[in-house]
Specification:
Layout (H helix, E strand, L loop, with lengths): L7 H14 L2 E7 L7 E7 L1 E2 L5 E6 L3 H8 L2 E7 L11 E10 L3 H11 L4 H4 L4 E16 L2 E5 L1 H4 L6 H13 L8 E6 L2 E6 L2 E6 L7 H9 L3
Antiparallel strand pairs: 1-2, 1-5, 3-4, 4-7, 5-6, 6-7, 7-8, 9-10, 10-11
Length: 221
């Protein structure tokens, strides 16, 4: 067995950064139709401020029917630019999925990342679910394998969660087309929509409010 010599806080942050960098994963649910057998599907997801995952799924989908019968799920995502499948970074989140009552609230942030989902959002059979991790398996590469402590992975409430929307509006007003459009800011970094697609920038250390974030983004760092 490969020993885990990495400090827990390091592997927790690394797992969260990898999840934030990616936009889709393989979702596994417990099949209602086939007596609890694992059922896999591909779904877009968004890592929220606290590290939990948001998914937008249809009531008609098989995985949604499974979640309603048993909320236990897992989702795996991986370094989608690395062709060496066994050596690439990946994270498996094991947790429970719960329906989000505030559909419009969840939609504000989710649709900035997935504007193509507006058609689905307009359909009333599509609902948001939040996957709250109970265990996380992080693999950074060969020999870099860890079970992550979810108490260290999940983040408590911080001011930037409420300040994000206003800060995005303020900062985007002064950005040029070449700099791209800011679509999301969290304590770990920020996401920019560029011509070539979305680009993730991570902070060197966690920043939890607009007073800390604003000068960094105005300097382009």
């Amino acid at each position: 067995m490969i020993p885990d010599n990495t400090p827990p806080i390091d592997s927790a942050c690394a797992a969260r950064l990898l999840l934030r960098a990616h936009r889709y994963g393989a979702l596994s649910t417990l099949s209602r139709k086939f007596d609890g057998h694992p059922f896999g599907s591909i779904t877009p997801y968004l890592t929220d401020h606290d590290g939990s995952l948001l998914i937008l799924i249809s009531d008609l989908a098989e995985h949604t029917k499974n979640i309603k019968a048993d909320p236990r799920v897992s989702l795996i995502t991986h370094n989608q630019e690395d062709t060496h499948i066994q050596a690439q970074g990946r994270v498996t989140v094991v947790g429970t999925a719960a329906h989000i009552a505030d559909r419009d609230g969840a939609g504000k942030r989710y649709l900035r990342y997935f504007p193509e989902a507006r058609t689905y959002f307009a359909m009333h059979d599509f609902q948001f679910y939040r996957i709250v991790p109970q265990a996380i398996r992080y693999i950074g590469g060969f020999g870099d394998i860890h079970w992550v402590n979810c108490e260290r992975y999940l983040l408590p409430t911080y001011p930037l969660q409420q300040e994000e929307e206003g800060l995005l509006e303020e900062l985007n007003a002064s950005r040029t087309e070449a700099q791209g459009l800011l679509i999301g800011i969290d304590c770990d970094g920020y996401d920019v929509k560029e011509t070539a697609g979305l680009r993730r920038w991570n902070f060197e250390q966690a920043l939890t409010d607009s007073a800390e974030v604003r000068p960094r983004l105005l300097m382009g760092k």
